[in-house]
Every structure is written in C-alpha cells, then in structure tokens.
User: Which sequence fits this backbone?
C-alpha cells in the first residue's frame, strides 16, 4: 500500500526538481537528530537495536518470539540473543504459553516502559533546545510545515496519528528472504512459535 502511494509521487528530474533541496535538508536534519538522539540513548546503556525492539513491543503489545524475529527482519536466534540482553536489564519479560510450552511470548515490563519514557523525554529536550534557537516567525513556519508534513504522511502511509513511533517498524521481509529460505510468493512462510 505504501509502495503504491510512493510510486505515485512526482518523478525527479535532475535540475528542475523542486523537491530535491527540501528532501536534502530534511534528510540532513533527520540524520543530525538521529545521531544526537542515538548518543543520548547509548549513554543510557541501550543499543539502537534494543530500543527498536522495545518500541516495537510497546506499540504492538505482547508478541511471540517468532513473530518478533519476523517483524525485526532477523533470525530467531538473533532475536533471542537481543531479547536475552534486554531481559537481563529488566526491560522485557518472557512467558511460555501454558497450552504449548514451546511458544514464548515477550512483553515490555514497567521498568522498560519507564526507560522508554526517559528516552522520549531526552528526545523532547533535544528538540526543545533546537527549536528554542529559532526566532518566532521561523518557529511558526516550522510548526505549520511540520503539521502539514505529518498529516500528509498519515494519509500517504496510512500511519496511526496517535502512534508517535509508527515509523519505527521496519517492513516485513519478503517471503523470498524470510530466514534465508527461498519461497514462492504464493507460498506463505511457515510459522513456528
């Protein structure tokens, strides 16, 4: 759905593309914000991979280990290793389904939710610092542009306007690359929970 909508965007032509400077500035600003935010997150002792897992679980709720690996686009053993480290810190917990003890479910703990709130506060602090350097007229322009961009993105991508982390979920792997096994597009991947 998103790919179809993105294909409908205006084609880029080298020198006459009015979107090019906007895209370049936007990417540069987002890259700088991401780097600054990453440094702050790493100071809390959380890797970006761990943060991504926590945000995915916070948004989606409890997930089976196999589903989490699929959403993260990693093997089950890689997902298990990442969860091991996050669980040691008390940010997630694993439970086994009583009806089928082979199925392991993962969920964020209250301590994990508190840590995510702290990360959001750090991000807000960084953005407030940046926005505080703009004069009132530029701040008003940024506010209007950000609002318009957000609402257009919601329409274009179908994102939930109430989910501040909607863009952090990666696209699922194609069926041909799922866990490195070739599959035809019509054959759904085997699910083992």
Assistant:
């Amino acid at each position: 759905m998103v790919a179809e909508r993105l294909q409908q965007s205006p084609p880029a032509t080298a020198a006459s593309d009015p979107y090019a400077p906007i895209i370049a500035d936007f990417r540069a600003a987002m890259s700088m914000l991401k780097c600054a935010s990453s440094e702050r997150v790493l100071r809390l002792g959380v890797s970006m991979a761990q943060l991504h897992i926590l945000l995915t679980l916070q948004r989606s709720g409890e997930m089976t280990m196999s589903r989490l690996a699929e959403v993260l686009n990693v093997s089950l053993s890689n997902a298990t290793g990442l969860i091991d480290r996050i669980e040691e810190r008390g940010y997630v917990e694993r439970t086994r389904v009583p009806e089928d003890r082979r199925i392991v479910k993962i969920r964020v703990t209250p301590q994990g939710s508190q840590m995510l709130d702290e990360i959001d506060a750090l991000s807000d602090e960084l953005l407030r610092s940046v926005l505080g350097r703009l004069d009132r007229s530029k701040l008003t322009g940024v506010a209007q542009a950000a609002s318009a961009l957000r609402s257009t993105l919601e329409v274009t991508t179908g994102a939930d306007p109430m989910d501040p982390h909607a863009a952090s979920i990666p696209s699922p792997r194609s069926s041909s690359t799922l866990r490195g096994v070739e599959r035809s597009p019509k054959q759904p991947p085997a699910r083992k929970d």
